[in-house]
Structure to design on (333 residues):
């Protein structure tokens, strides 16, 4: 088994051809024909900004894949239905591994655990519930026993409701306790990971994971890269405010819960773009609401502009209209 550091270096060397634009490579040194060497910044790789792997030019056979982010830190991209990525964060510590968000089935989560074993023999010790939705938690039944869970109280309450309503064929893993404050710091030995609740967003208990030394912020479903804002369980205006808090942090690399992992500079640009999509959706629905339209008529008349081409817009736009109507009508508590 190769060491995590060796894996990291090899993966970075290969990623220019395999995972173009997926991670930041920093500055490179180029030599002139003479003995003089000049340090130059690399040109940013031009990629299609989309959550659609086909349009991005990434074959489905490339997934699942580990994306090195820093020493001991990896993103993990896996494909879920209807064909875009679900992203997990993996942090390798001194005596164990921390994972933020799993995958959407037992098989997919087991595959993730198997991939982790290719970079370290250390066991999983910590699991953070970034999102309580099933596409991130439905495979948690294959997680090892005895691990430490970190979950917001709102997500814990939701998982309890999901467990009570689940059919006999489905097992919902409910962590034993919730975090008692909005910040919980986990020292994994190689670094500190700050688990933070920045506010309600895609769900009532969204958690992000901040690596202050590396200036990386894994945002789970608070950040959907080029995915139309999915609002089934959302708090639309608060979601915008939560993204604003993230943008104000000392972060160079923002990692989404869905969509592609970008290079650091692009990741900020895309988070700003996602924030603007939230604003635009809320503004359009507010315009239709002010005209006195029924929610069904608003769904028919909504004009989304460029956001109509974002991934799963056809599925999620009607959901967003209904949720913003609920907010405007005072139904969200």
């Amino acid at each position: 088994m190769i060491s995590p550091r060796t894996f990291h270096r090899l993966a970075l060397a290969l990623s220019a051809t395999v995972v173009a634009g997926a991670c930041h490579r920093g500055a490179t040194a180029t030599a002139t024909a003479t003995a003089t060497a000049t340090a130059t910044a690399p040109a940013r790789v031009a990629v299609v900004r989309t959550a659609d792997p086909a349009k991005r030019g990434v074959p489905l056979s490339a997934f699942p894949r580990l994306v090195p982010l820093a020493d001991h830190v990896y993103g993990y991209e896996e494909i879920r239905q209807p064909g875009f990525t679900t992203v997990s964060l993996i942090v390798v510590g001194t005596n164990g591994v921390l994972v933020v968000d799993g995958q959407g089935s037992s098989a997919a989560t087991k595959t993730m655990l198997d991939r982790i074993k290719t970079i370290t023999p250390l066991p999983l010790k910590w699991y953070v519930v970034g999102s309580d939705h099933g596409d991130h938690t439905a495979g948690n039944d294959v997680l090892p026993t005895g691990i430490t869970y970190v979950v917001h109280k709102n997500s814990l309450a939701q998982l309890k409701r999901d467990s009570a309503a689940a059919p006999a064929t489905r097992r919902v893993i409910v962590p034993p306790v919730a975090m008692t404050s909005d910040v919980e710091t986990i020292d994994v030995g190689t670094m500190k990971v700050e688990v933070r609740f920045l506010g309600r967003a895609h769900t009532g208990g969204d958690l992000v994971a901040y690596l202050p030394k590396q200036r990386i912020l894994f945002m789970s479903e608070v950040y959907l890269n080029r995915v139309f804002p999915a609002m089934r369980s959302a708090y639309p205006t608060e979601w915008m405010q939560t993204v604003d808090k993230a943008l104000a942090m000392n972060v160079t690399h923002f990692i989404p819960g869905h969509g592609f992992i970008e290079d650091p500079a692009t990741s900020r640009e895309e988070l700003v773009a996602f924030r603007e999509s939230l604003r635009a959706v809320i503004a359009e629905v507010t315009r239709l609401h002010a005209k006195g339209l029924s929610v069904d008529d608003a769904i028919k008349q909504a004009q989304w502009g460029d956001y109509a081409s974002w991934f799963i817009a056809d599925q999620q736009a009607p959901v967003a209209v209904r949720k913003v109507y609920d907010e405007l009508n005072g139904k969200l508590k």
